[in-house]
Specification:
Two copies of one chain form a homodimer. Chain A is mainly alpha-helical. Chain A has helices at about 15-40, 40-50, 55-60, 65-85, 90-120, 125-145, 160-175, 180-200. At the A-B interface, helix 1, helix 7 and helix 8 of A face helix 2, helix 8 and helix 9 of B. The structure holds a DNA duplex (30 and 30 nucleotides).
DNA sequence: CCCAAAAGTCTACACTCCGTCGATTTTTCT
DNA sequence: AGAAAAATCGACGGAGTGTAGACTTTTGGG
């Protein structure tokens, strides 16, 4: 979605515009934390990045496009992190590791992740990005469930369908918890882990 | 939140304004289905209700207030329905009944419920309304879990905390499923029921 | 039935934000 | 150095918001 402004793929020195673009995204993230999506105006972002509205429109076509680019940048991190995670084969260990990783991701990128979830409905590109991310998580959960002995398949009581609901449970629980204290956050994570274990048939 | 326009509490005949107010809310609900929250303008609502923008501001102070009133009206139904539901004492039966009821609620009021969830972050009053609703559901789930033998308490592996996460799971799963086919909706419900049973220690 | 007060409605205005355009300046590359 | 490409600016027209003041309809007591 950042395909409308000039390509600059293979190039040693960085164009001035690259710096500006990053500044815009950084400012956007900061404003998101300060005033939230609705209150944040295109003028605000431009000002924060040290340019005028007119100039900002050289980089992005709208506030939505700016935020979409920001989400894309963040989600990229999530994907890298997912890929980098080694597959543990012992289910209990795998579940603990996955929850630990999720906590870290929400700690680092909670703000943008929350924003992505909120905009999923109204901004199709963001919806796309986030649903792809959710698919990655669902796939990972499915694998763990199957290894723990849950029957593979898409019927309501089989691994795939259960993984999807567990994914939504984790998303929503963290979404809310990450707006509260660190303490609640930690506890919420433990609760999700516990339910995941039970769902995998691994009674304590 | 509808406290700014004249009180008309105890009165036999209905004021003209009462009819208009209902017309506004109905129009708002219809437009929400047609074009969604963002695209819907105050002018649209007024026109649909047969008055001008100026007149609409006599009833509500903003688009947000209109939607908040609509959410309040809908949520009222949910509360009534919850109160009316008899407490079944056999956990398996209680869980099945609760999921059945939830399916019906989402079928009838899915649109407004989705809207309420979306606006929870940005419109404090809606957030209030919805979090109260979630509390009711969480309390009900907690009761069932405890009756099924899950230890009472707020620690991560005890009834109260688990109920909260299960509530979010159900909310999110239905939120997504209700935008797709009836078939997926039915299956998603079965999956939630299954996970709830496992969480309650009621293995199939 | 009358008529004043209350309730409801309208048009017009001032404001904010948005997205676009053409002109202009700065950067980049050779 | 100097032309092409990249970046920036200010100004405009449009859409939506919320408010103000005048006007009309409805209501209810005498």
């Amino acid at each position: 979605m950042s395909g409308h402004h000039p390509a600059r793929s293979r190039r040693g020195t960085e164009r001035k515009g690259d710096v500006r673009e990053r500044a815009i995204l950084d400012t956007c993230e900061a404003l998101l934390a300060q005033k939230g999506y609705d209150a944040m105006t295109v003028g605000d972002i431009a000002q924060g990045a040290g340019i005028t509205r007119g100039a900002l429109y050289f980089y992005f076509g709208s506030k939505q496009e700016v935020v979409t680019a920001l989400v894309a940048r963040t989600v990229e991190h999530l994907w890298e992190r997912s890929r980098a995670t080694a597959q543990t084969d012992e289910p209990r260990r795998a579940i603990a590791a996955a929850m630990q990783r999720t906590v870290e991701l929400w700690n680092e990128h909670g703000l943008v992740m929350r924003t992505a979830i909120d905009l999923s409905l109204t901004v199709p590109e963001v919806g796309e990005l986030w649903s792809h991310t959710a698919d990655l998580f669902t796939t990972a959960i499915t694998a763990v469930l199957e290894r723990a002995g849950v029957q593979a398949g898409t019927e309501p009581d089989q691994a795939s369908a259960m993984a999807r609901s567990l994914c939504w449970m984790i998303e929503r629980t963290f979404y809310h918890a990450s707006q509260e204290s660190r303490e609640k956050f930690r506890k919420a994570s433990a609760t999700c882990e516990h339910i995941w274990l039970l769902s995998a048939g691994l009674n304590t």
